[in-house]
Amino acid sequence: MTTSREIHLAKRPEGLPELGDFRLVERDLPALGDGEVLIRQIYMSVDPAMRPRLSTDYKLDEALFGGAIGSIEASNNEKFAVGDVVHNQLGFRDFAVSNGEGLRKVKPEADIPLSAYMSVMGGTGLTAYQGMIDVAKVKEGEQVFVSAAAGAVGSIAAQIAKIKGCYVVGSAGSDDKVAWLKDDLGLDAAFNYKAGPVNRQLRALTPKGLDAYFDNVGGDHLDAALSVMNVRGRVAACGMISGYNEFGAKTTVHNLANIIYGRISILGFVVFDFMHFMPQFQAEMAQWIRDGKVKHRETILHGIAEAPHAMVGLMRGENTGKMLVEL
Amino acid sequence: MTTSREIHLAKRPEGLPELGDFRLVERDLPALGDGEVLIRQIYMSVDPAMRPRLSTDYKLDEALFGGAIGSIEASNNEKFAVGDVVHNQLGFRDFAVSNGEGLRKVKPEADIPLSAYMSVMGGTGLTAYQGMIDVAKVKEGEQVFVSAAAGAVGSIAAQIAKIKGCYVVGSAGSDDKVAWLKDDLGLDAAFNYKAGPVNRQLRALTPKGLDAYFDNVGGDHLDAALSVMNVRGRVAACGMISGYNEFGAKTTVHNLANIIYGRISILGFVVFDFMHFMPQFQAEMAQWIRDGKVKHRETILHGIAEAPHAMVGLMRGENTGKMLVEL
């Protein structure tokens, strides 16, 4: 019998999540049924999009869930062999039982670490890629802004815009992150959104306006982008973390009337619509990583007991790049 | 020598415009130069989009301008003969001198009144048509909401959605207007936005959610639409009158994060991009009017001295359909 540890939602957070909102629970797993596999999780993801779910979708006193990578420990399913590495949505636990649905085999390139398949080589990277290329449709020479540009998705999105030949401005929440964006990732400009009003800082760094905005923040960042957007500008709406601590993910925006004369489009998108594109994306991204064109950072905590810290820290901006827990 | 009367901006309104913000001025026009024409204006338009310009673009102590239709009284321009009827942007005056730029000849159908070319058969109708068909891309059987549906653009947009086979809900600012929408224009449902919270009223009337929203209002109407929008819904952003009395046309919206998982697009558009389509549009619209499929109302005031009343009344919702001044 396998004993697993998992993170339960003990109470729904009000505002920023706190450690006391979560509970570590030990649980004996049942014997595997027909068609089932036992997964020993290796990495699990902690994402901003999980915060609204803490207020709504996740159930109280049950294990949370989310993206993870693990290896098959035991299998009653002919599609999966012991030792296979699979991406799954059963994070927040050491071990998971699955009937195989929603599992995606991961075959890492020899020169790329497995953790990258939870970030730049996984859904995180694909989100950035599709958002910048298929949604924002950036073209060479365009002016591009990425908010939360030191975050998991933002840092990849900003570098993809650079690869496509754009002028790229990023925002981040500390001077260290701003230095990383400019010195290591090669952004043309970056600013610390805590150091002054976003609209004033962004305007100073976008003398040619903006043709595209990859939005991870909403609120004051979206307002600032709309106030400098060029005619036919595009907003790829990936996330709006500024509202995620409010019930209903409310984020307040005042400048929407600018989109009318600007013929601006604001386009919501989710990576799930693009998963069929993963193999092609991974081949292209692997080459960019090898060529040094895309760099990435992960903030990795260790052990399932740290998962609540990862969530609390993420919402406080303590990560650079992807926030992961190694299990 | 021709003496004209024109409306000047005496001071910039704060909040709702008042009669004292405007001034009627009498002025002797200079003799026509080479290539110039003298236009005697017949109708002038008063539009919501003029309100933000009162705070910004229009100059103090000069004549306002805007859409108008007039006849050529004298011509030094071989392209225009005396008696030609021309659409122009020199409203808010009895007579106007033009070098011919921006004039568009209007040849009304025998069975359609000239005033219709300032509303349903002009830019107003084309705005509704393009917004509903090319921007919102409504399809048969879809669920559609039009705000300010008793207004000039909204009333046409809502009827076009009905022609296209959609379920159509409209909002308006009085019970009389709501009755007109349901009883005369044939909308499936309508509500008085002053009678209760917009989100609650809209939700009650959209059991199948919304596939498209033709936005003339912004603010609480846009928030309400976003809260019931189906996956891949489209918002055609035509106007946001809720913010037009604020400097910068600020309108406050909280539900934008809904667009992400909903893959919703919010698309700003202006009719100027579609003017080449006017002849084709007018042919189609004329037939709809003859067939009784599109009805329209105009609220017509008389005499240039009434133009400030038209602007003040428009912003107070005193019109049904297009607000015009007959000169």
Question: Approximately what portion of the residues of chain A adopt beta-strand conformation?
Answer: 25-35%
Biggest interface goes to: A-B, 33 and 33 residues
- Report the C-alpha radius of gyration of chain A, rounded: 20 Å
Q: How does the major sheet of chain A shape up?
A: 7 strands, mixed
Q: Ends of chain A: how far apart?
A: 19 Å
**Helix/strand/pairing category of chain A:** alpha/beta
Helix and strand pattern of chain A: EEEHEEEEHEHEHEHEHEHEHEHE
Our count of helices of chain A gives 9
Averaged pLDDT of chain A: 96
Question: Low-confidence stretches of chain A at least 5 residues in length (pLDDT < 50)?
Answer: none
Fold and architecture overview:
The structure is a homodimer of 327-residue chains. In chain A, strands 3, 4, 5, 6, 7, 14 and 15 form a seven-stranded mixed β-sheet that branches. In chain A, helix 2 packs across helix 3 and helix 2 crosses helix 8 (278-290). Chain A has helices at 50-55, 123-135, 152-163, 175-184, 198-205, 219-228, 258-262, 278-290, 307-315, and strands spanning 3-9, 22-28, 37-45, 68-75, 85-88, 95-98, 104-105, 143-146, 167-172, 189-192, 210-215, 229-237, 265-268, 298-302, 322-326. The longest helix of chain A is centred in the middle third of the chain and has 13 residues, at 123-135. The mean pLDDT of chain A is 96. Chain A is globular. In chain A, helix 4 links the parallel strand 9 (167-172) and strand 10 (189-192). Chain A is built from nine helices and 15 strands. The A-B interface holds A 52, 218, 222, 237-240, 243-244, 248-270, 273 and B 52, 218, 222, 237-240, 243-244, 248-270, 273. Strand 13 of chain A pairs antiparallel with strand 13 (265-268) of chain B, so a sheet runs across the interface.
